[in-house]
Design goal:
Layout lengths: L8 H8 L3 E6 L4 E4 L1 H7 L3 H4 L13 H14 L3 E8 L5 E10 L5 E8 L1 H25 L1 E6 L4 E4 L2 H6 L3 H4 L13 H12 L4 E9 L5 E11 L4 E8 L1 H23 L3 E5 L5 E4 L3 H5 L20 H11 L4 E10 L5 E11 L7 E8 L1 H41 L8 H34 L1
Antiparallel strand pairs: 1-2, 1-5, 3-4, 4-5, 6-7, 6-10, 8-9, 9-10, 11-12, 11-15, 13-14, 14-15
Length: about 450
Amino acid sequence: MINVSDFNLTDYLFNVSKNFNCLADENGNIMVANQAFCDGVSISKFESTSKNFLDFVHADDKQGAFSWMNKIVALNARTDIEIRYLTNSGKSEWMAWSAIKLPDQDMLYFSGRNIKNLKAREEKLNTFLNDYQKIFDSSLDVICSMDADGNYIRLNNAVQKMWGYKPDELLGNNYLNYIHPDDRAMSMAATEKIKEGESLTNFENRFIHKSGEVRYIAWSAVWSESDQIIFSVARDITELKKQQNAAVMHERRLESLVQSGSDLIAIISKDGVYTYISPSVKTTLGKQPEDYIGKTPYDFVHPDDVHIIDKAFEDILTNQKIDVLGHRYQDAGGNWRWLQTVATNCLDDPAINGYICNTTDITLLKERELRIIEQNEKLKQIAQINSHELRKPVASILGVMQLMNEESIKDELNITILGHLKTLTEELDEIIKRIIQNTHDDEAKG
């Protein structure tokens, strides 16, 4: 778990949650409620302590809610319920509640979320499905009947849109005449099973459209023994097949990228636990993906880098994407590998419900960087040593020159040479001073 000093994460999440959260005794008397609960039922936090959880339950749902509360106490395990609850809208709205009895305490923890919109969507979906069924039954798909030999007896007008033929063009013709040659054998076998009394649903084959185009068809059919007729419904699934094939190819490409890529891709839950890690971990760290599932980064990170992981977990709570500083993970051989990670907060994505981590092995880069630093340090030391050593003879030369003057040397050529020598020696002394000063400046910056 994330160690955040001087900060009670549980209390924080309880209070800032948008869910209706409250603690109550085993009889449902509310002891404390979060702001979302109070705002949701239009009471103050002080007033909430004089209320019972059941006070806000719809009259028709109270008995069920009461039994549910008793179940929580009896089972001592988390239980869920959907009931109507009185909210600040003035109406009882559907809410999904989860509750559990706190360990070693005679208190119940309730957490509820408004599912009014979900219920509305469910109702719309049911209406849509009913309407769709009516449309389906009203012949948007091909509805046809065939005799025992497979000859068309009757067809609806949908055949013209789906297959390009008018009903009259197909009447009396055998359905196999229009089935793709490669699918005729299995279609004949399916027909025999139907006539033996076996219902057929979603049987797929390919139908040759009047234009010559191949269409994928899903069939549902039943056999009427008394009428000696096959009743069938045919649905065009060509576009669905294209989408499925495209989805399969897309999935294969993604799988190849994840499995063949050099970077590690991992998903870490809100609790900091690995729920997925790509197979490339075998190449990078020499371990199997299952070695990480159910564990946390703290199980693998270098002790000196724990603070980096702490900071990353803290930052990702308030940022969509973060860069995690270089940190070390131990590989299967016990060696420490330098890693660099970009983490993305995907808690709101139900398909992920966690943090996606893209990690690159930067060990070689880090080792090269450390070697450069080490070499620079050695060069500084050499520069300091050499500079100090060089200054000694230069200082001696300058000292001798101070003892010499033009009065003691009468020869004009020697006087000129002595002047040049003094100038060069002073310039050399200045160069050495600058080297020493630059070394000191670098040390101060470092």
